[in-house]
Known about the structure:
By secondary structure, the protein is of the alpha+beta class. Helix content is 58%, strand content 8%. It has helices at 2-27, 31-36, 39-80, 100-145, 150-159, 184-200, 217-223, 250-265; strands at residues 174-179, 205-210, 230-234, 240-245. Helix 5 (150-159) crosses helix 6. The chain is elongated, with a radius of gyration of 61 Å. The model is unreliable at 1-47, 64-68 and 80-86 (pLDDT under 50).
Amino acid sequence: MKKNTDRISMTPRLVLVLLSVSVSNSFVIPRTIARSTTPSRIFMSATEESKDMTDSTSLEDESLFVVASNELNETFRTNSHSSLTSNAQFGDSVSLKPSSSDTSTTQQPQAKMLVDDLKHRQTRSIVTAVLAVLLGVLNYAWQYTHPMSSLQILTEMQSASQPLSIIGTNDKPTVVDFWAPWCENCKLAAPTLLTIEKEYSDRVNFCMINGDEAQAWPYIEAFRVDAIPHLALVSKEGDVETALIGPIPKSVLEADLNVMIGNAQSNEKVALPYRMLDVFRDSPDKKRVHFDP
């Protein structure tokens, strides 16, 4: 009985031992591995495994980058017709700019066009300058060999003449010249009168009356003209100071005009140095003239 009891009491112990062995075989690290694997070696093993995974991932990324770079190169080459590096490797420097040969090929025609245009403009400017100088010389030579006639001078002065209505309105003395195209003395005095007009135009009024025109008769009667050329010198108030008949020397006309200008700017009146004909001596009340516009 005791032996049976011992067998029965040993049975649970045997079961426990068997279970322990089974569990150890299922969940415990094999002995050969357990002996050779320390905690530091387990960490190194995990690190190496992670590195292997990273390396594999990097290789895949590199492959994708090279493929993408090749596709980008091909697209840029098609769009811009420029040659890029086709055998790109990972880590190589890939330029997205057109090659220097294509750039120079494109810029050469443009540069040639700019140079040709610049040469054309320079040639045109030189030709224009030469023509201008030539025309100036020809114009001077023509005027020198064909001076303006006295009749042309009188005609131009007539066209630029101020109206008689300006007399006594702007505080300036006035010279009234009666002339005719057939008058030789008028033609003789024309250059002198033109010079005087240019010299005194800002201080003296100049009026030209063509005695051959029908509308000139009222003025001829007002100034009592009986011979031409007839220069009537009128003060700023409109009083006829004197009349100069025939060709008058430039110095004489200048002397009288200077005194008249001084009288216009001063209250004191000075007599004219040169007097020739006083047509209003018998009727001084008609000496002052006035004309409506």
